[in-house]
Design goal:
With 132 residues, the protein is an alpha+beta fold. It has a single domain, classed as Longin domain (Beta-Lactamase, 2-Layer Sandwich), CATH 3.30.450.50. The protein is built from 3 helices and 5 strands; from the N terminus they run ββαβββαα. Strands 2-1-5-4-3 form a 5-stranded antiparallel β-sheet, with helices on both faces. A hairpin with a 4-residue loop joins strand 4 and strand 5. The longest helix has 18 residues. The chain is globular. It starts with a strand and ends with a helix. The mean pLDDT is 94. It is a lipid-anchor.
Length: 132
């Protein structure tokens, strides 16, 4: 059971904005890591784009399960895990991360934010803490 990626995004108009992300690609071949990283970022953005505000969903993509939670204020979180990782734990993690993120990062920064401009350092810690 593994978590591969944890992302915080903003579902705004006209597109979804990646605000912060953490990933663990250490189990992949060294030469595949950058393309796996790109796949996870692209998939996270695509899933949030296709999800309604205020919704939760789990989407199977290849051998991964992508759990998405889009809050009614547009803040969204995506966890990419293997098929064995418990769904309930993923959604508990997303609730916790999005609540903490919204308290620490000003809502005014969400529409124009990027991983370089948003200062929120807890994602890596959560990713390793929830690793089984």
């Amino acid at each position: 059971m593994r978590l591969y990626s944890l992302s915080v995004l903003y579902k705004g108009e006209p597109r979804v904005q990646l605000l912060k992300a953490a990933s663990d690609v250490s189990t992949f071949n060294f030469f595949q890591r950058s393309s796996v990283q790109e796949f996870m970022t692209f998939t996270s953005q695509l899933i949030v784009e296709r999800s309604e505000l205020g919704s939760r969903a789990s989407v199977k993509e290849q051998e991964y399960l992508c759990h998405v939670y889009v809050r009614s204020d547009g803040l969204a979180g995506v966890v990419i895990a293997d098929n064995e990782y418990p769904q309930r734990v993923c959604f508990t993690l997303l609730d916790k991360v999005l609540d903490e993120f919204s308290r620490q990062v000003s809502r005014a920064d969400w529409p124009s934010g990027s991983p370089a401009t948003i200062s929120y350092a807890a994602l890596d810690g959560y990713l390793s803490k929830y690793q089984v």
